[in-house]
Design brief:
mainly alpha, 4 helices, 62% helix, single chain
């Protein structure tokens, strides 16, 4: 079995894995290995930069009152009721 620190056996870096890194969901060893990949692999670095841009853009929208009008309370109540009465998703 390969040692976990052996880079020859690195798994592909996915957007989900990078998002987990951003969210602080990875164990220290995995996070350190992934950060090393970000520093040494231009494609992985570009993916993480793109995720960072998305996070910044979403954050900016959260404080931009002109981005969309407030949703009326009756609309959110109707949506909530529909979601609560919907059957659970099937795998």
């Amino acid at each position: 079995m390969p040692d976990a620190a052996d880079d020859r056996y690195e798994l592909p870096v996915t957007v989900d894995l990078l998002a987990d890194l951003q969210a602080g969901l990875l164990d220290d060893r995995t996070a350190a290995r992934l950060r090393r990949r970000v520093r040494t692999d231009p494609a992985v670095k570009a993916q993480l930069a793109a995720l960072d841009r998305v996070r910044r853009n979403l954050s900016a929208l959260a404080v931009d009152s002109a981005s969309a009008p407030d949703v009326p309370a009756d609309v959110t109540a109707t949506i909530g009721k529909a979601l609560r009465s919907a059957p659970p998703p099937t795998p």
